[in-house]
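Support reply, case 0932

Customer input (verbatim):
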Amino acid sequence: QPLINAPIVGKLYNNNPVQIFGYTHEWYMINTTMDNWVNAKYIKTNMAQTTSNLNYREGVGTNSKSLGVYEKGTKVRVLNKAEWTDGTWVLCLDSMDRFGWCSAKYLQMI
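Our regenerated output:
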């Protein structure tokens, strides 16, 4: 779990790209092998809006378990991207902390 008083294990510099793999309570996981966390206020993300009701899923692809549905018009942060057999998928986070993978076909960048 990320903690504000946890030991510092590295530094990020302005405009350095990172890949985000997880999220919990305003913290992004940026390294899956070591569970490195950074406070979300220091990371700039792209925004998108759903163009229809859209499942957000546990993993990439339509075979992954649905965790819920973003309603049409929901604004989400785009945290990561993956190419899959059925198209491009993006890791999304909305303002209610609902977090999961979505098909990019149903998102419009804003």
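We compared this against your earlier run and they match. Two observations from our side: The two ends are 31 Å apart (CA to CA). The CA atoms of residues 8 and 82 lie 29 Å apart. Please reopen the case if you see a mismatch on your end.
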